[in-house]
Amino acid sequence: MRLFTAALACSVLSQVAHAFYLPGASPHSYKDGERVDLFVNALTPMLAGTDDSKLKSLINYDYYNPLFRFCEPEGGPKKQSESLGSVLFGDRIFTSPYDIHMAKDNNTCKTLCLVPDVDAKEAKFINDRIREDYALNWLVDGLPAAEMKIDLRTNDTFFDMGFNLGNNEGAHQNRPALNNHYEVVLKYHKPTVDTFRVVGVLVWPTSIGGAQTATPVCDAAGAEPLILNEDRTQAIRYTYRVTWSESDTPWATRWDNYLHIFDPKIHWFSLFNSSAIVIFLCVMVSMILFRNISRDISRYNDTDFSEDIQEDWGWKLVHGEVFRTPRNPLILSVLVGNGAQLCSMVGVTLVFALFGFLSPSNRGSLATVMMVCWSLFGGIGGYFSARLYASLGGQNRRKNAFLTATMLPTFIFIIVFFLNFFLLVAKSSGAVPFGTMVTIIVLWFGISAPLSTVGSYYGSKHGGIRNPVRVNQIPRQIPPSPKYLRPWVAAILSGILPFGAAFVELYFVLSSLFASRAYYAFGFIALAAGVVALTTATVTILFTYFILCAEEYRWQWRSFLIGGGSAFWVLAYGLFYWATRLSLESKTSMVLYLGYLFLIAFLDFIITGTIGFIASYWAVRKLYSAIRID
Ligand SMILES: *[C@@H]1O[C@H](CO)[C@@H](O)[C@H](O)[C@H]1NC(C)=O
Ligand SMILES: *[C@@H]1O[C@H](CO)[C@@H](O)[C@H](O)[C@H]1NC(C)=O
């Protein structure tokens, strides 16, 4: 019976999963000769093939940016609707004039259009984009057009999404050649005799120069490349040829070729590395803490002993101070509340990702789920913030509720707005459109902020957590503490370990964010996130113990700082990544990179700081509940 229920639950779950997959995941079956739409997405800078190549820009351009002069469909291109996350991550999808019919016109050379008058300014713009390794991104039936490549480490072939706008390698270093002919290979699968499904889209772009008005032959062999002159008006002819080939890849696994994990060994290595760090840490921390604390506690609680000669020492000395209200309890509780909201968002998103709901076939689903989760978890933020504020002895509940709902989002919104301004000036398509801005504001003020207020209400109703020991009337003097326990030094020192546990994954995350490489090693990143959380918690507890032993009782802000210490290393690593993997030429790209990097580090600071603070709070309460105070 139980088995049956489980099976039923599973099948219901998979139904739900299926519904969740829509619309990307229900197969589109074509009939023989049915029109197959080709959509064009924004142009993105791409890492050229070689291992030591660098990314040269961070700005996306609309396919129909007037300076490119690409062929437009009759009646003008039409914008396709997209999800919130897809828009945020830069997708701008339009219709195109390519005329493709399922399994028809095999191997026919076709002219897309002839652009008779590309002027010098446009030619320079195109050449500059070729020099920066821009790639075209097409979509056919939801599948991105790709170039077939070979992973040199394993000799596996895989599909690398996007293909070059032009060629600037070797002889073309100074005279870039524009690719104006596309060899398109469309792979289809026939589950039944008269249904056709698209299961692969490959493009080999080439450059065919010579007289652009002659009859097209679509033959790149022997043809001279098309090099645009930057000082006169010229013609460009775009041609394409579609080859249909039957494939035995079924529709369900058509993404497998695209989802190529480069060098899975390095993920395993990173995981092994971080697990070693965690085990080492946990053993060390538990040894230090258990040995010392149990000795301390038995000595503190040994009445005969303490009545006669024993004076209090170490962390027991500050028992009347540890729960003294820290400076700025309002800001601290607002940060922790928002941190808790972000932590829950990350946790739930990773769970979704682990179950495969966020595969790249669902464009933008990752960012959409994150935004929606963040809005829905406003209540968690409000609740944590209000309860912590009450526990820290804060009085101004309304101010706390208000700041929890608004402070952090406003700050982030200002940064995003500022970056968006730069994107607009650079005429990039990456700028967040007005409508999307409005959607985000609605999510924030319509869902997150009200939920946060409700959370705050319940948080204040439940009130603060009772402290296990009383706070003295008069604050103690604090002796000077050792150098390594000064707040910033301690933060930077303690940040090394969580960062060390995750920096390999961080490399992949940065590459997928900036070099538009899809990221799908979600199993690895979920484990890495778990390891980071554990490491942060243990290191912070350890440092808090040291701080209290040094009779420094202002541990609250320090534990937040120490927990967030990894943000410093994330920032440093981001700069290192810039130095080694990017060669940004425009000021806009630099500002964008620094802006995004700062945002990532800031969010990391809030999240890990919150983890550190909550872990220390728990540990301090445990510690002081265990001793007897006379
Ligand atoms: C298209 O042509 C290629 C080679 O020219 C051939 O292998 C393929 O089977 C053809 N496809 C169809 C649907 O006729
Ligand atoms: C990959 O193929 C090349 C030539 O075909 C061969 O020399 C090389 O050893 C292969 N590498 C691996 C890892 O199989």
TrEMBL record:
This chain belongs to which protein, by name? Transmembrane 9 superfamily member
Q: Which UniProt keywords apply?
A: Membrane, Signal, Transmembrane, Transmembrane helix
* Family statement: Belongs to the nonaspanin (TM9SF) (TC 9.A.2) family.
Which SUPFAM superfamilies does this UniProt record tie to the protein?
Answer: MFS general substrate transporter
Q: How does it sit in the membrane?
A: Multi-pass membrane protein
UniProt-listed Pfam families: EMP70
Transmembrane annotation, as ranges = 268-290, 330-358, 364-389, 401-425, 431-451, 488-510, 522-548, 560-579, 591-620
Q: Name one GO cellular component term.
A: cytoplasm
Q: A GO term (biological process) for this protein?
A: vacuolar transport
Signal peptide limits: 1-19
The record lists the organism as: Ephemerocybe angulata
Q: Where in the cell is it found?
A: Membrane
